[in-house]
Every structure is written in structure tokens, then in C-alpha cells.
Design the sequence.
């Protein structure tokens, strides 16, 4: 993260930055190590129904010369759903300028928790498009992973 931050700090205009969620999954230990550099928090919906926001990390890349970043760790269990996304999902606005928002997003993850990761992703994207009446104000990227075994 220090090298990535240095690159962006030295190569972009002052005041510009990049958000990033970086993760490495260790399948033998079922452990996810991550750093959230100012990005929207990834959502871990546990098979128990509990919801955790993966926020550990630091500031966006490029803002400061030498910020500190901290790693977060989570153990993933069978049935857990990890959702990574861009702010274009939760900031999708309807014609009355109401946002899709985090509560609705988590509700959609939960209501489709019995589905496969592919189905959850498709159903959420369909709901986002319906909510925004097809208008796209920002990029919408969504990755859904579900622990099967």
C-alpha cells in the first residue's frame, strides 16, 4: 500500500486520489486479509444473518505523502457472502433524488442469501437499474462471492 500510495501521490494532480479495496484470500485457512483505502466498505453477510462492514485500512491513495494503512482480517465460513462494490451502486438516485443507499443494498443481499453468488449479483443489479429507472450517474461495479464449503 505504501508503494501504491507513493505512486499516486507522485503522479497525480494535487487533491486527486484513488480509493481501493485490496484483499487476499487464503483458502486453506478461509481467511481474508484486506486493506480498505478510503473505498466504500465491502459487506460481509454472515450465514447467521449478521452483517459486517470491512472498513479497516486508511485514507485514499495519493492524498498524503506517507499515510499508515492497517490490515483487517476475517475468517469466512460456509454460507457467508462477501460483496465488493463501487459507490455507484449505493448512490444510484431515483427520479426524486432518493439514493439506493446502504440499507436497501444490505436488504437485497439478505433477501437473496439462499441464491448463488451469480444470482445474487444479477438480482441486485436488476433492482438497482429498476430503482434508478435505467439512468446511470456513476459506474456500477458489483462482485459477489459466496463460500460454498
Sequence:
Amino acid at each position: 500500500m505504501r508503494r501504491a500510495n507513493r505512486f499516486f501521490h507522485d503522479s497525480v494532480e494535487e487533491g486527486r486520489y484513488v480509493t481501493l479495496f485490496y484483499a487476499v484470500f487464503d483458502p486453506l485457512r478461509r481467511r481474508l486479509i484486506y486493506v480498505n483505502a478510503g473505498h466504500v466498505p465491502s459487506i460481509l453477510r454472515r450465514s447467521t444473518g449478521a452483517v459486517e462492514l470491512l472498513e479497516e485500512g486508511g485514507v485514499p491513495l495519493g492524498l498524503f505523502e506517507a499515510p499508515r494503512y492497517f490490515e483487517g482480517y476475517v475468517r469466512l465460513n460456509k454460507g457467508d457472502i462477501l460483496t465488493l462494490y463501487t459507490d455507484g451502486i449505493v448512490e444510484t438516485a431515483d427520479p426524486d433524488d432518493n439514493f439506493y443507499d446502504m440499507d436497501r443494498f444490505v436488504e437485497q443481499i439478505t433477501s437473496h442469501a439462499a441464491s448463488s453468488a451469480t444470482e445474487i449479483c444479477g438480482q441486485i443489479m436488476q433492482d438497482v437499474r429498476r430503482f434508478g429507472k435505467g439512468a446511470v450517474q456513476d459506474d456500477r461495479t458489483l462482485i459477489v462471492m459466496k463460500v460454498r464449503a
User: Anything to note?
Assistant: The radius of gyration is 17 Å. The mean pLDDT is 95.
